[in-house]
Specification:
This protein is of the alpha/beta class. The longest helix has 19 residues. Helix 2 packs antiparallel against helix 5. It is globular and about 70 Å long. The mean pLDDT is 94. The chain contains 13 helices and 16 strands. Helix 13 links the parallel strand 12 and strand 13. The protein has two domains: 234 residues, 3-Layer(aba) Sandwich (Aldehyde Dehydrogenase, Chain A, domain 1); 143 residues, Aldehyde Dehydrogenase, Chain A, domain 2. The protein has a seven-stranded parallel sheet, sandwiched between helices. Strands 5-4-3-6 form a four-stranded parallel sheet, sandwiched between helices.
């Protein structure tokens, strides 16, 4: 790893080159961007051995740092996961190009024709932690939407991200796009993050992907606008009218498929009249699967559960742990989620359409689900090919942030010598 004498000078240079590249990329043809992403997919697969070798260095580094099992799982790359990166690049490549898409068009009595069309945001800064696949996901989505990206990966994924970044640049250059379209900050120095957060002249939006500490830091200190979610405190409410088989399958998948992702279920809310018919079976199945169930009230009497503390509710475990509580009805569940949730993803299990409609109408999470695993809270599963993150704010992008969400819009106004009275 190269040391840099001046991080401010390094970042200023990266920012200037990004701004220059953005002028070219914003008007690049859909065909050229498609070619760049297909080329990047080829390059990632062709260099998979080098990427895995680089990843082993990162795994050693992460092990020495004492990363949790969940974080090490996020960091690890093998051939199957690299195939997933390649598939994601190809999926984004084949999507419709959002730039220039006409969102609305109308004529005015004055004779003006007005069109609202999508346009790139410009330069996007992405700050992420241990997942090296974000290098490809973010690079692909930004390029597809005509945006230059400055990537600052975590210290844990330094080598893996560098190897993937090289493949991304290879694809861009061979397609005739600027090498600076996708840049990776070449240092682990945390000062680079602080610089990015204040680069208002070069960066148009920051997207943090990582834990509460990283996202909280970015949201507190950034002078650049931010797309982010702080935590994925995901709830599943089991209604009295829930189907037992569907509920068991969904809850087990939502908690155990991958515990380290933001769509992993962290809290079960069980209708008081469903405890005996549904709740006990679900909790026993979770315990049998190796999940530590931290239960409150009557649920704590179920064999194998642990007594919950107040801090277990509203907590993102990212581990084989889940909180569980009895609620009186759907209204009580909604009230609990409003108090303890993070507006990320919440689910209701029920065959009662009225209860589902109430849940959807009265909660304002970015993603609400009915009878489906919360592990689907992912841009790829939403048909976006990939995502740069999940946004839980209410301004601009919300939910999975794909290529279309990385655009703004402009108005194109046409007249015929038209003047205003």
């Amino acid at each position: 790893m190269k040391d840099f004498d001046s991080i401010p000078a390094l970042m200023a240079d990266i920012g200037a080159r990004a701004k220059a590249a953005s002028l070219v990329l914003a008007s690049a043809s859909a065909e050229r961007k498609h070619a760049a992403l297909i080329g990047a997919a080829h390059a990632v697969w062709a260099t998979r051995d080098e990427i895995i070798k680089a990843n082993k260095l990162d795994l050693e580094y992460g092990g020495d740092k004492g990363l949790s099992d969940a974080m090490m799982d996020r960091l690890m790359l093998d051939e199957d996961r690299i195939q997933g990166i390649v598939d994601g690049l190809r999926a984004v490549a084949e999507q419709k190009d959002p730039v220039g898409e006409e969102l609305a068009q109308w004529d005015m009595p004055s004779g003006l024709n007005i069109r609202r069309v999508r346009t790139p945001l410009g330069v996007i800064g992405v700050i992420y932690e241990s997942r090296p696949n974000v290098t490809a996901d973010a690079g692909a989505l930004c390029l597809k939407s005509g945006n230059v990206v400055i990537l600052r990966g975590g210290s844990e994924s330094f080598h893996s991200s560098g190897a993937i970044h090289a493949a991304m640049v290879d694809g861009a250059v061979k397609a005739g796009l600027p090498a600076d379209s996708i840049q990776l900050v070449p240092t682990r120095d945390r000062a680079a993050v602080q610089e990015m957060l204040t680069m208002t002249n070069a960066i148009d939006v920051i997207v943090p992907r990582g834990g509460k500490g990283l996202v909280g830091l970015v949201q507190r200190e950034a002078r650049v606008p931010v797309f982010a979610h702080l935590e994925g405190i995901v709830h599943i409410y089991i209604d009295v009218a829930a189907d037992p088989i569907k509920t068991l399958d969904v809850v087990l998948n939502a908690k155990t498929r991958r515990t380290g992702i933001c769509g992993s279920a962290e809290c079960l809310l069980i209708h008081k009249d469903a405890v005996d018919t549904l709740g006990q079976g679900v909790l026993k199945a979770l315990i049998d699967a190796g999940v530590e169930v931290r239960a409150e009230g009557a649920l704590a009497d179920i064999a194998g559960t642990h007594k919950a503390s107040a801090d277990d509710f509203g907590h993102e475990f990212l581990d084989m742990i889940i909180a569980a509580k009895v609620v009186n009805d759907v209204d009580d569940a909604i009230a609990h989620i409003r108090k303890h949730g993070s507006n990320h993803t919440d689910c209701i299990m029920t065959e009662d359409d009225q209860s589902a409609a109430k849940f959807f109408a009265e909660l304002d999470s970015a993603i609400l689900m009915h009878n489906a695993s919360t592990q689907f809270a992912d841009g790829g599963e939403f048909g976006m090919g990939a995502e740069i993150g999940i946004a839980t704010g209410k301004m601009h992008a919300r939910g999975p942030v794909g290529a279309a969400q990385l655009t703004s819009f402009k108005y194109l106004v046409t007249g015929d010598g038209t003047t205003r009275a």
